[in-house]
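Here's my example:
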Amino acid sequence: ERLEDFNLDKFRECYVGYFHSVVDFGEAMMKEIYSLPSYLEMYFDYKKYGEDLLECCDYIQIGNNYFVGY
């Protein structure tokens, strides 16, 4: 795409954030979407959840930046 075609509003809408790892991404998404009691957190696989979001959902990763529906 050309720079003239870049849609900054669409970019902002789709930008999820910067995360140091897929584990951090999975943890942030889990906590944003669900309310998991703290005593159960040690049993939850944030890495697998983050990988699943990237594999089967509308999330993409570019470096350490994550987007949805872009």
Observations:
- The mean pLDDT is 89.
- The helical segments are 8-14, 22-33, 46-56.
- The first strand starts at residue 15 and ends at 18.
